[in-house]
Structure formats: C-alpha cells, structure tokens
Amino acid sequence: MSKVLIIDDDPQVCETIESLVTRQSHEAVSAQTLTRGLEKLNEGGVDVVFLDVRLPDGNGMDILPDIAGRTDAPEVIILTGKGDPDGAELAIQQGVWDYLLKPSSVREITLTLGRALKYRDQKFGQAARDALNLDKVVGESAAMKAVFRLMAQAAGSDTNVLISGETGTGKELMARTIHRNSARAEEEFVVVDCASLTESLVESTLFGHKKGSFTGAQSDQIGLVKLADKGTLFLDEVGEMPLSLQKSFLRVLQERTFRPVGDSKEQTSNFRLISATNRNLDAMVEKGEFRSDLLFRLKTFSMHLPPLRQRLEDLRTLNLFQVSKLCRKYGIPEKGFGSDFLSTLESYDWPGNVRELFNILERAVVAAGEEKTLYSMHLPRDLRIKVAREQVRKITGSDVEATGEDMPIAEGARRIGQEIFSEIFDHQLPALREFKSMAEKAYLSELIRQCGSDTAEVLKVSGLSRSHFYALLKKYSISM
Q1: Which among 201, 209, 243, 248 is positioned nearest to 226, based on CA atoms?
Q2: Residue 48: CA atoms inside 13 Å, Cβ hemisphere, count?
Q3: What pLDDT digit, counting tens, does each position of 107-116 carry?
Q4: How far apart, in Å, are the Cα atoms of 75 and each of 37, 50, 326, 429?
Q5: Is the CB of residue 95 less than 8 Å from the CB of residue 150?
Q6: Among the four residues 3, 27, 257, 463, which has the most C-beta atoms within 10 Å?
C-alpha cells in the first residue's frame, strides 16, 4: 500500500483525490497549507504528492527543491487552476512527475497517479544497487541531492545526456561522475572542447584523417570520435559547435558511423554521448544558431546544475573539502576557519561559481602560509571590497555612482563606509563594538565637514538630538 499526500487549499479537491486514492487501496492524507503539508511530509512514508501552486502561505513550486532533496523523495504531481506554460516548464525541470490543470477529470487524475506509483515501484523495487560513487563531488543541499538522483538515473542508462549550467558549476565533473558510475566506466572518457574547434581542423579533430589528405597531414590520425569507441564522448560547451559541423555530427549520432578526412571507407564508433552547455540552446534554435534536430538528439535526458549562489548551504562543505586538499598539495598542516571567513564568502554572489570559489580558496591558503586559521583578511582584496560595497549599498539604499563636490550625503556615507572597510582589509577584523565606533567617528567628522560646522544643519541631517550630538563629540574628542 502506498501513501499519497494532497496539498491543496480547496477542500473539494482534497476530498475528490482522497476518494480516488482510497478506492485503489492506498492511504491518503491531505493538508490545506504549505506549512501543514511539510509537517505531513516530515512524518515520512509519502510516495506521491499532489501539490497545488497557489496556497494561502506560499507558492507550492518553492518547496520542490526541499522535496527533491529528501531521501526516497516522493513523486510530485503539480496542480494549478491557471494555465502557466512557464510554470509547467519550471516544474518539469525540477523533476516533477506531471503537471495537471484544475479541474482535471477523474480519469486523468487516476491515470497519472497510477503511472507515478508504477514508476516508483519499479524504481525502488529493484535489487539493491551499487551506491553512486561521488568521489570529488561535494554537496549536501537539497538542490544538489536532486542533481545526484538525476545522475544516478543517467548512469544507469546509456542514453544521451545534456548537462546545462553556468560557467564554473562543474559540468565536466558531473559528466565524468556519470561515466565513472556507468557500464562504460572501464573505457575512455574523451573530451571535445567545442569552443576551441577551428573550422579548418574540426572534422580532422573529430573524425581523424589519412596521411596526405591535406597540407600538414604527415601520418594517419585517429579522431576523438573513434577514441571514444565503447566509452563516453563528452562535448563540452556544445553550443559553440560550428553550425557547419552540426549536420555532419547529427549523422554520426544517428548512425554511429563517420568517414575520416581523405578516407573512402566509413568507420564505426559505439560511444555514449554526454554534452554540456552554459547557453540556452532552445533560444539558439529559435535564432537559427543551432539545429533543432540535433538538440532533440542531445537532450534525451537533461539535467541542470544550480549556480553556487543558489546553494550557499554547500559553502562550508566545499571549503572543508578544497582547503584540506590544498593543504595536502602544499604539504602544510590542516587549517581552521575564523568566524568571519565563511560569512564573507556567503555575502559574495559568485559569478564564477565553484570554479571561482576553489581559485579564491587557493589564494587564501597561499596568503595564510603557515598560519593555522583562515580569516577574511586572507581573502583577495577585490572580493572583500565587492562584499563591503554591497553591504554598504544595502545599508544606505543607494546605487548611485556620484562624484564631485555635489555628491549626495547618502552617497558620501557609502564612500566613507567603503574607505572604512578598506582600512581594515589588510588587518585582522576588530571587535564589532570597536568597528561601530570607527564608523560612527568617521560619520560625525564627515557630517560636520559637509554641514560647515553648522550645528542646526548637523542636527537636521543626522536626526540626532542636541544632547546626544554633544555627547558623541565628547566621546570621540571631536571639535566643531
């Protein structure tokens, strides 16, 4: 018997689905808010969730990563009262089983539920499988747990896989992990960097060539496609593949045959294809920059890697993993982390993702030398300045880049704040109380300068009472 959870604020919908579920001899429970639904989910044992999009206390789509990251995560069927193509696409990208519009017929709900339960029985009714080998892959967030589940599915099949994600998210690492966990693990993993392929040598690089087939071809050369025979061919940044080559490569995918440059005979290669891209291939198809028929072949199975800024809960684990690796590399003792180190990293937006993080950590380890603890001061100055500017921007609410004598006071305060941060960047951070005093003293000094020592104007701009203002002047030994 399976357990089905219905999260919907419409009591009639809950009653209808509960009735359908119990008729099939399964257990049904319902909740009319996200909060209550998560409580029911936390009780465990749920196999399928019917999830409404619009609920009194939030959007059902927002909890999909939480659901997907759970051990034995249930299959999710999205319910919504309004047609939303973008929402449907987003739901499917996040791994939901199906997307139903309300009101749905009893037959449609029954069929969808039956298929989801059958799929789940097959998925978990198999004999115990080998655990996924995640060597070098780090992540404990709900978003990454969902990725690991998709990787396990990809590794268990031989279908084409398309991995999308921003630069630096680890697409090649994920491709190698899928290969390492597949039936082809003992064979070659061959990387093709599509961004570096030149029009003149692209076919020779991929398909090989015969001696004398063109100027400089002094001997026979095996192409990368043949090298991947029985193994995995990885097309990195496939969106950069020249349009002129895409038709030829489509035939290779369909037939698994190709002809080396200058050869009259075709050769075969039994490879498994994994591709990766940081571009929107669907948008490229609409612009005529990528072949739609090739895209269909590439994304038989697709997965998206989240950017680091969307899984900051993995920062600590990533830090521990990489710093430990770096300490072994440089032959130095293990290092600890100061309380300010992680907080600074969490305040950065990481445009370069995990690749950028690992580069930053190496610079910090080198800067720390034999010191046993990593502090924010060991991080690159440009990173700390960016974090400081963002923090001051949030405090002042100013995005203006003003210059000159007519600089607004809020902008002036922002610049002053940046200078305060810059002053302490090359030293260990002071206590918070001391830092507040530094900022307060700098503010008062600049305030008096801008107001021309006019007490009435100072009080108007600062909002301070006269007694409080004079108390601060005395505290910091500032004269008018």
Answers
A1: 209
A2: 27
A3: 888 898 988 8
A4: 15, 9, 40, 48
A5: yes
A6: 3
The encoded tokens of residue 435 equal 């830092």
Q: What is the pTM of this model?
A: 0.64
As a whole number of angstroms, the distance between CA 132 and CA 126 comes to 15
Nearest CA-CA partner of 335 in 353, 348, 322 = 322
- List the beta strands (DSSP E) in 367-411: 373-374
Residue in this structure with the two tokens 């029954």, named with its chain if needed: 110
Q: Where are the beta strands (DSSP E) in 119-188?
A: 161-164
Residue 251 token pair: 């035939």
| SS3 assignment, position 456 | helix
Q: Cα–Cα distances in Å, from 457 out to 331, 409, 439, 454, 472?
A: 60, 13, 20, 5, 16
Query: In 3D, which of 380, 459, 394 has the Cα closest to residue 425?
Result: 380
Peptide bond into 103 cis (omega under 30): yes
Q: Report which DSSP code applies to 3.
A: E
pLDDT digits (tens, 9 = 90+) for 34-47: 999 998 888 877 88
Amino acid at 466: R
Question: Which of 137-151, 305-319, 343-357 is predicted with the least confidence, judged by mean pLDDT?
Answer: 137-151
